[in-house]
Amino acid sequence: EWLRHIRTTWAWVFSVNEVPFTFLPEGFRLRPPCVIHATHATFYGMQPMTMPVERLIAEAGKLAQAAQLPGDQTVVIERDGAYVGISLPLPPEFCRRLDYPLVLPVDSQVPLAVYLGLAEGGARLWLSLNQSDSPHVLLAGTTGSGKTNLARAMALCLAQRNKPEGLALVIADHKGHFAALTALPHVIAYALAVPDEVALIRWLVERLDARTSGAEKRQPPMVVFMDEISDFLAAGGRQAVEGLTRLAQAGRAEAMHLVLCTQRPAAEVLDPTLRGCLPARIVGKVTCATDATIATGQAGTQAQGLVGRGDMLLLAEGQRLRFQAFYLPDGELERRVEPLYSLPRPSLAIPPFLADEGGIAGSVSDAQILERLRAGQGVTQIIGELFGCWGGGKWWGYRRRIEEVRQQAGLAAASRRRIIPFPFGGERDGRK
Q1: d(C-alpha 369, C-alpha 406), whole Å
Q2: pLDDT digits (tens, 9 = 90+) for 230-263
Q3: Is 30 helix (H, G, I), strand (E, B) or coil?
Q4: Which of 117, 283, 353, 429 is least surrounded by CB atoms within 10 angstroms?
Q5: All structural domains of the chain with their residue ranges
Q6: Whole-angstrom Cα distance, residue 226 to residue 256?
Q7: Counting beta carbons within 10 angstroms of the beta carbon of residue 408, is it exposed (0 to 12), middle (13 to 18) or buried (19 or more)?
Q8: Domain 2-94, CATH 3.40.50.1820 — does that match?
Q9: Please, what CATH class does the domain formed by 98-334 belong to?
Q10: Is the pTM higher than 0.85?
Q11: 9: pLDDT confidence band, cut at 50, 70 and 90?
C-alpha cells in the first residue's frame, strides 16, 4: 500500500539507466538514486547529469507543488559536493513515531552523551555535552514538533547511563511534562512553577560561583533542563536573562550544561546574547523560513519543511543532520524511570534548593509521613490523604519526599511481588 501510494501520488517513472522524476524541471536527468525510507520522509541521494545543482535547489518550491505536498510541507534539498540529497515528506497517514529503545546501545562511552534518535540513513545519532562546541543545547519547535518528548528522552538517557553520584540533574518545568523525572535520585533540584524557576536560576548562579571559587570541589557534572523558557524569561525579567546568560557563558568550564526548550527563539523572546551562547541547536517543525533561520542560526536550512512529530534537524560540531527523535509518552516515561527510583541518593555538600509547591516543603512533617509508612500505607494513599493530591505534576514531588523519608528511616520499599493464580488451582509466586 505504501509503495502504491508513492507511485501513484508522486508519480515515479523508472527506466533502465536513469531515473527521471516526472515533477523535476524539464531536461533534468539523474543517475539511479540511493533510496532510504525514513519514518517521516523518503530520502534520495543522487548525482545530477544535465543541470547545475543550484538550479535544482532554486526549484524546491515548484517540486513541492508538483509532488502535491500540503502547504506546510516542502521538499528539502541539500548539496554535498557534486551530489544532491532530496527529502520528500510522507503524508501524515504514513508517518510513524520512533519509540525510545528498551535497551540503550553502547556505541558511546562518554558519560554525557545522549542518544537522540536515528539519522536518515538509519545510523544511531549521539550528541555529547562534553564537546567544546556543544556544551549547551537549544531545542526549538512549535507545538507537536516533538521537542519536549526529545528533551525528556535526553534526561532519561543521562539518568540510565550515569550513577546518581556521577551526575546531577536540575529540572525547571512549570507545565508538568518532566514531573515523573523529579523523583530520580540524580535530581538535586527542581521547580514546578514559574516563580520557583526564577529562584532556581539564582540558586544555580550561586552554585556556579561556588564551583568557580573552589568552595564546592569535586562536584559531579550538572545538566539543567528547562521547558518553555519564554514564560520564565517573561516573569523573571532582566535578572533572569542575565542569570541564564551567565550560566551559558561560564557553565561549560565548571561542567554545568543547559538544555533549553522554546517554541520560538525570536529576539523578543530569547535574548540574542543568550542565544549566541547556545552553540548546539535541535530544531523541529517551525512555521516559516524566518523562524527557521532564527532557530538554527543559519539561513537556508529549510527547517520550515520538517514534518513534525519528531522530524528534526541537529546543528552541532559544524554539521547539519536531519534525524527522527525518540517518542516518549507519559506512561512509557513513568515505566522507564520507576526502576531508577530505588538507586541510593548521594549526599552532596551543597545547600539544597527548596521550592514551596503547596506542601512539598511545607506544612506536612516527616513524622506524619513516617507514621503512615510504618502503618503500611502506600505512596498513593499517603499523597492523597496528607497532601490532597491524586495526580498531576506535583504528585511526583510528593513521591520523592516520601521516598527520602523512607530511606532516612531505613524502611524497605513496598514489595512488588504478586500472586499469579494457576488455572488448575494452587498459586505461583511471580514478579510484576
Answers
A1: 9
A2: 888 888 888 888 999 999 999 999 999 999 999 8
A3: strand
A4: 429
A5: 2-94, 98-334, 356-432
A6: 13
A7: exposed
A8: no
A9: alpha beta
A10: no
A11: very low
